[in-house]
Amino acid sequence: MQRGELGASFTRDAAVSSAGATVRLGDPLEDTTLEDTTLEDTTLEDTAAVMAGRRRAVILGLGVLAVLQAADVFATWALLAHDGAELNPVGRALIGSGGAIVVKFAIIGALLALVISRPVVRMSFVCGVWAVTGIYVAVVGMNLYSLHLVGALG
Prior knowledge:
Blueprint lengths: L7 E2 L5 E2 L5 E4 L9 E4 L5 H38 L7 H9 L2 H18 L5 H27 L5
Antiparallel strand pairs: 1-2, 3-4
Helix pairs in contact: 1-3, 1-4
């Protein structure tokens, strides 16, 4: 490598030369190379497969989120029936008017329509959906624990 050239090499499975990006896949215990693939050889089908995988991940995440949202509403209704209180002021207003489940599913429907209509699904969007899903796992868990404490679960 000459002065001013950029280059990097990795000791195990991949190496990048300064002439072009090359990925070498091989056994980490041997120095032999099984396949060399340049980034310029990436096909449109590979990109489409990545986007399809991301789209499936978002759709699955939104499905899990929909189930958790419904469980959150039903658990909140059960807590309110046992003299509990909704701490979220927006949730309190929606639960009081009966529109909580409609609003929650409308938001999920809008996100689903956005994912289906867009050709590119960003990884940050996939991570965001699963982050919110993880938060709702905690919310539903806290609601179920609260139901347990008031004796509503049996």
